[in-house]
Amino acid sequence: MRVVETRAQSEFEAIFLEHYAAVLRLLVRLVGAGQAEELANEVFFRLSHHSERWLLTNNAGGWLYRTATRAGIDALRATARRARYEQAAVTEGKQREAGPLEDVLREEHRKNVRAVLSSMKPAKAQLLLMRSAGSSYKEIAGSLGVAPGGVGTLLNRAESEFRKRYLKMHGEKEKL
């Protein structure tokens, strides 16, 4: 057993030495030097858990570059999501300073949104709430137990139903 572990370990080390610099360069171009090394280490950590399968196929390089690219894109998305949240917090802070009339109108709008959400089926309301909180389609699919490919369609239907109910509540005709 130790011979197999030693062989796999030496093959992993050879792959690491061969590909680490290239994976790191790819990630530096994608996310910048600050996150690149951490992501590169994560990619090789993942490889260490899949090493036997990838070492046998001799396609570790392709797997590494694909995994590094996906990890970099995920990191960019997380950074963008964080920036949106921070911007929303700044905007909300500025809105709080707007005055009492704006506070009353904002609270009324929140009550109306909550009323519409409570009148919808729970799964559709949850779908809308998760998406507005910044959840990805994959996260939503996992939470609701649906296929990730169907989340967009479900989301469009839920948004359409929400819009119709909200406009009906206010006696407005739907605008295109």
Q: TL;DR of this structure?
A:
The chain is 85% helix and 0% strand. It is mainly alpha-helical and 176 residues long.
Structure overview:
There is one protein chain. The chain has 176 residues and is mainly α. The chain has two domains: 2-80, RNA polymerase sigma factor, region 2, helix turn helix motif (Rna Polymerase Sigma Factor, Chain: A, Orthogonal Bundle), CATH 1.10.1740; 99-169, Arc Repressor Mutant, subunit A, CATH 1.10.10. Helix content is 85%, strand content 0%. It contains eight helices and no strands. The longest helix is centred in the middle third of the chain and has 37 residues, at 60-96. It starts with a helix and ends in a 7-residue tail after the last helix. The relative contact order is 0.07. The model has no long low-confidence stretch (mean pLDDT 82).
Topology overview:
Elements: H1 2-31, H2 33-49, H3 51-57, H4 60-96, H5 100-119, H6 122-132, H7 137-144, H8 151-169
Helix pairs in contact: 1-2, 1-4, 2-4, 5-8, 6-8
Low-confidence stretches: none
Output the structural class: mainly alpha
Domain count: 2
Order of helices and strands: HHHHHHHH
- Name the helicity range: over 70%
Mean pLDDT: 82
